[in-house]
Structures are given as structure tokens and as C-alpha cells.
Amino acid sequence: MATPRLFQVMISIDGSAQSFDCFQVIATQIVTQSLLKPNYRINVLHIFNVSKEYLAFNQKPDYLHQIYESELISRLVPNRFSLTWLPYNGRTTTRDQIMTLADGYRADLLVVGFVGRKGPKADPTILGSAVDHNLRNGRCPLLVVKAPVLRKDTPASSYLWVVLIDGSERSLKAARFAAGLMAGEYDRMQLRHVVKGGGEPEGLRTRAGETLEGTGVNWTLEVVDAGDADVQSAVLDYVNQGPDLIDFIVVGVDGSGVGSKARWQVGHVTEAVLRTSKLNVLIYK
Q1: Terminal alpha carbon distance of the chain
Q2: Where is 152: in which H helix or E strand?
């Protein structure tokens, strides 16, 4: 039997408390996955600037390396993780360097915090530079962590993943990809299709079933009429005012499939969800 290819999860950290919370969510998730899928691997990436001598001791590269290495050793065997600590090269931007490394390491998923070391912006809908750059230019799916809640601390001790589907192949593939990140029996998936008038599109449930066949996830399909609102507004109302039990929102980078590996055309709903949602957002490409 052929050995399955490693599924590489790259987590970009910057020394902030937010990025450590981001790491905790993903590391815990991968530990659970490691019991089920032996091909998952974590690579923690830190690009540091040696000229920033003013940084506090707990933000220094050596200290951070020690902390993250200890955390990984306590969770995973050595061949299941790596740490990539590199100085800022001075030739491009840090966000470019992150993207280049994610590509070079063939990352299957890049994980970043929504805010960095400087903390939340005055306008919380403004995307951080690393998020925005990798959203539009990165090759691999992007998980933006906004709500670093561990599964054990959720009311049901289970993550709820809501996948926004529009019937396109991209959105269905996003559901399949998310299923690969979920912890089987511990997590739940809701496929949510918002329409303007009418009911469930013919064949959608069948296609969803075929897409998720063999994943082992518990999923449901909810078809919702937008009513008097437009589809985007109905989606945002649900994301921003809906149940507090949602942990991850999953969307395709666009619904048309016209994105390119050079630069992605980000869909309006996807960008609006990423900017305004307080939930973790997984963007599939």
C-alpha cells in the first residue's frame, strides 16, 4: 500500500499572544487528527527582523523557538513537526517571504492570525497585510483564526463547521477540504445554501453527498431563502448574528472558479465574510 503524501499545515507566528492562541487551536486540532490520519504534519514559521532589538524578551526569536518547540514536543513525535525560523531577507516584504515559503514547502494549508503583534486595528474590518496578501496571491487554502477557542472549551466539546455553498464545484470542494481538517466523530458540518426565492436546487443534496462520501463527517444541508434581503446580506446576517456555536466558516475564494495561481479574484461574499465575521474563516482555493 502506498504511503499517503504528507498534509503540510504551515502556521505563521509573529510572537504575539494572538498568534500563540492561533497555534494552540491548530496544534490541538492536528493532535486529534494525528490519531486518525497519520500523514498530518505541522510546520511553525517565524520570520524575524534582527534589527528590532527593542522587542521584549518574550518576543525574541530564540525565546519563541524554545517555547514553540516545547509545545510541539509535548504534543507530537519529532517527524510530525518542524520549526522554520528565518531572518527577514530585506529584499521583499515579510508577507511575500511567508507566501514564498508556504509555496516552497508545498503547504496544503497556511494558517495566520487575523491581527498581528500590533493588535486589533481601529477599524476591525481592515485586513492585516499578511492576510490580504496571501488571500489574493497565495497558492494554498488560507485559514484565518479570529476566535481561538479550543474544542474542549466549546459548549458541546465539538466544533461546528459551516460551509457556505452556492452549487459551484469550488464550494463543494471546499466542503471536502474542510472535512479533511475535521475530527470525524467529534465535529459537525453544516452546508448552508442561501437562495433568493425558490427551494433546494435540484441535485444539490446528491452532489454534496457524493462530494463528502467516505469522509466520515456528520453533515447536514440547510437551504435558506434570503427573503427581502440580498444573498450577501442574508449570509452576513447569519454569520454576524447567528448562533454562537459556530466555530469555523468555510468559503471558496470565489464561486466562479476564475481565480488563477498568479492572483485570485476574491468573491464579494468571501471578502465580506472575512472582514466582518468574528469567527475563524477557512478560504479554499
Answers
A1: 29
A2: none
151-284 shares the fold of 7-145 = yes
Distance CA 237, CA 58 (A): 39
Whole-angstrom distance, CA of residue 15 vs CA of residue 189: 32
If one compares 62 and 28, the residue with the highest pLDDT of the two is 62
Instruction: Look up residue 262 and give its three cell numbers.
Output: 498568479
What's domain 7-145's architecture? 3-Layer(aba) Sandwich (3.40)
Who's near 186: CB < 8 A, 6+ residues apart? 32, 151, 157, 158, 159
pTM here is 0.89
Checking if the pLDDT of 106 tops 80, the result is yes
Q: What are phi and psi of 56, to 5 degrees?
A: -65, 155
- CATH class for domain 151-284? alpha beta
Q: Which three cell numbers stand for residue 23?
A: 497555534
Residue 51 or 129, more confident = 51
Please, are residues 170 and 254 in contact by the beta-carbon 8 Å criterion? yes
Q: How far apart are CA 41 and CA 81, in angstroms?
A: 5
Report how far residue 166's alpha carbon sits from residue 17's, in angstroms, rounded to the nearest whole number.
36
Domain boundaries, the chain: 7-145, 151-284
C-alpha cell at 211: 462530494
